[in-house]
Amino acid sequence: MYYGIVRGYSRSYKVCLGTREGSFTIIIQFSSIMAIKLYVGGLPYSTTDTELKDAFVPAGDVVSASIVLDRETRRSRGFGFVEMETEEMANAAIDLWNDKEFNGRRLTVNIARPKEDRPQREFRPKQQW
């Protein structure tokens, strides 16, 4: 197999590959737009990822939606994250759902902040009595 020419376009790369029998071209596209992650708090514990995504679709293109689950019980912790494709769509989602009722609970929706560093907890074995 022969690796041929790599040409750069605005947001894509054209890679030409060839063999003795013939050649073909692969176009790889990269998006420079980064999704905006929103924090969604106050969710009913019965809410699923799909329901969360469907609720935010009217505001624009939803890249992903996920409910945060407790590690031990695997039950909802009552909050989640939604990624919107653009900042405009994220702002529309905030306007649509912040301080509004969703399945009987009032939501808090804002742009997610990075997780803060927490000091590492000291491990202490449980005392046996």
Overview of the molecule:
- With about 130 residues, this protein is mainly beta.
- It has two domains: about 1-30, no CATH class; about 35-110, Alpha-Beta Plaits, CATH 3.30.70.330.
- Helix content is about 15%, strand content about 40%.
- It is built from two helices and nine strands.
- It has helices spanning about 50-55, 85-95; strands at about 1-10, 10-20, 25-30, 35-40, 60-70, 75-85, 100, 105, 110.
- The strands form three sheets. It has a four-stranded antiparallel sheet with strand order 5-6-4-9. A three-stranded antiparallel sheet has the order 1-2-3, with no helix packed on it.
- About 15% of the residues are buried.
Q: Rg, please?
A: 23 Å
Largest sheet: 4 strands, antiparallel
CATH topology of the largest domain: Alpha-Beta Plaits
Q: Give the strand order, joined by hyphens, for the main sheet.
A: 5-6-4-9
Structure at a glance:
With 129 residues, the protein is mainly beta. Helix content is 15%, strand content 40%. It folds into 2 domains: 1-32, no CATH class; 36-111, RRM (RNA recognition motif) domain (Alpha-Beta Plaits, 2-Layer Sandwich).
